[in-house]
Amino acid sequence: MQTYKIGVCCTFGAGSSMMLKMNLSTVFSRLGIEAEIEVYDISGISGVALDAIYTSAALISQVEPNAKDAIVISVINYFNLQELEQLTKEHLLKS
Amino acid sequence: MLRTILDFFITQIFQTPAFFMGLVVWIGCIFLKKDAKATLVSVIKAIVGMLILGIGAGQLKIASETIIQIFTMRLGLTGVSTDMWTAVYAYIEELNVINMGNVAMVMIVAWVVNLLLARFTPIKTIFLTGHVAYCDSAFITFFLYKVCGFTGGTLFISAVLSCAIYWWLFPSILRRFLVPMLGDTPLTLGHNLCISGLITTQLARLFGKKEESAETLELSGWLSIFKDSVVAYSIIMSLIYIIIILIAGPEIVGTKAGGTNYIVYGLNQGLTMAVGVYVLLSGVRMFLNELIPAFKGFSDKLVPGAIAAVDSPVFWSYAPNAALLGFLCTVIGQFVGVGLLVLFGSPVIAIPSVIPLFFGGCTLGVFANAWGGWKGVIGATFIMGIVTICGSAALAYVVGTNYVPGHSDWSTLWLGIMIILRMLFGTRSLA
After folding, report:
1. Residue B350: its H or E element
2. Contacts with B426 (C-beta within 8 Å, 6 or more apart), sequence order
3. DSSP H stretches of helix in B344-360
4. Is B223 within 8 Å of B327 (Cβ atoms)?
5. Contact B289 A77 (CB under 8 A)
6. Model pLDDT, residue B128
7. Which helix (H) or strand (E) holds A34?
8. At the top level of CATH, which class does the domain A3-88 belong to?
9. Which band of pLDDT confidence, cut at 50, 70 and 90, is reported for residue B428?
10. Contact A70, A50 (CB under 8 A)
11. Does the beta-carbon distance from B229 to A19 stay under 8 Å?
12. What are the sequence ranges of the domains in chain A?
């Protein structure tokens, strides 16, 4: 089975992305996805080879140009596990 | 023999922030049932992360210090930095003198108290913003030392209780005012914007209607470049420093800059702030990555159904436009605030800084939008900008320091508390 490389991105890469990372790992284990999740800030994510980047809908315009080949997934509510599950199924698993 | 071992342990491990953090993370790994290999990796990263943080913060302090000195030399006024990380470093340096520099210990114990309060009372808030918790511990310990003259055990216990109550009670008060935005999501803000966030929502209501949301406006794409912290620090700090350098003139700046052109020197100092913050954050990220999951796992077990108090950018996605509009009006408000301080002949002038401007402004903008739409955002964040900068100057005066945290809770709630404490413990002369 494939192990995904996932980036989680916020402005500082210290506070909110950490929350998103923990919620994502819950969702991934629920869906049976193997993944390595790392947190980044906007400058730090450029040039990193990743399968997908989850970020806030507010930051999407900054993240997308830096994303290389990764799929960029825009999240509204970091704590809505259903939303995270839905987005994962739609974007990550279909690619 | 036992005594010597114990002494060694206390002075060399417990009072060294990096090793202490390593120890805490090690306990966390035992709790998370990690294997030996993963534990070793985690403990090393926690220790190295803390050491990196120190290097980044040191850079910030050096860059701010010279600008403050230049400011003071030219104008005869006391310049005050409002950058939170610079303040953390400056405070820890002073706390080291009384052997209280390991504020990570205050943070960990206060967190445990927060958990216990949430476990045994009806208010279920758990503070999960690790870097803010670390900063708060330094700020509150320092303020209680400077204002009340506490040291040793008294200082430790009073700082722990103050932090724990601040993290547990105030985010839950704010949460009622976020309902229009969040509904019943078990979330609230865990940042130094709780009481000021509440004030902002109520101000916003006076200025406009929430139906006229800022999200209907078209904002310039230029504003969004500030979302990148490296860019924000570089632009804002360089601009502010160059303004100060121009006011000071080449002779005074020359005493610091040597052969370097004075404007280039200002630019350099501003960019050094960006460097410092970037280094610092990579350290913070490294140790929080090890610490937060353990803490979250622990709190999930101990306090089921807890309300998570989390970092500010979580809320920006609810209203990205309002966030940028709030940032812009906070910038204007803070500079007007500086103007007012000068106009009224204040002996202390607070110098605006990125974190209160951007992180404060964006967050308050989103809150204001939920209560008063775009008119509310403009009115409320402008006023809060003035309040924040004037309150920062007042806080510096009351506490007696050149460095203040800068966020708006420190200029409102904590300013009030410090004034009261000063009156109660006011033995130190105001100098």
Report:
1. strand B348-351
2. none
3. 354
4. yes
5. no
6. 86
7. strand A34-41
8. alpha beta
9. low
10. yes
11. no
12. 3-88
| Closest Cα in chain B, distance from residue A35 (Å) | 16
Lowest mean pLDDT among B188-202, B246-260, B322-336, B374-388: B246-260
Q: What are phi and psi of B426, to 5 degrees?
A: -65, 65
Name which residue leads in pLDDT, B313 or B154: B154
B428 vs B431: CA distance, rounded Å: 9
Query: What residues in B contact A59, CB-CB < 8 Å?
Result: 227, 313, 316
> Is A81 part of the contact surface with chain B (CB cutoff 8 Å)?
no
Nearest to A42 among B187, B228, B314 (CB): B228
Please indicate whether, in this complex, the C-beta atoms of B312 and A12 are within 8 angstroms of each other. no
Looking at the predicted structure, is the pLDDT value of residue B430 above 50?
no
Question: Which whole number is the average pLDDT over B59-82?
Answer: 84
A48-89, pLDDT tens digit by residue? 889 999 998 888 888 888 887 889 999 888 888 899 999 999
Please check whether residue B311 touches A, CB under 8 A. Answer: yes
Interface ipTM > 0.85: no
Read off the pLDDT of each residue in B121-147 and give the average, rounded to a whole number.
93
When CB atoms are compared, the residue of B231, B310, B323 closest to A15 is: B310
Distance of alpha carbon B74 from alpha carbon B78, whole angstroms: 10
CB contact under 8 A, A76 and B229: no
Tell me the average pLDDT across B138-145: 96
Cα(B18)–Cα(B287) distance, integer angstroms: 10
- Count of residues in chain A: 95
The answer to whether B227 contacts A42, with C-beta atoms less than 8 Å apart, is: yes
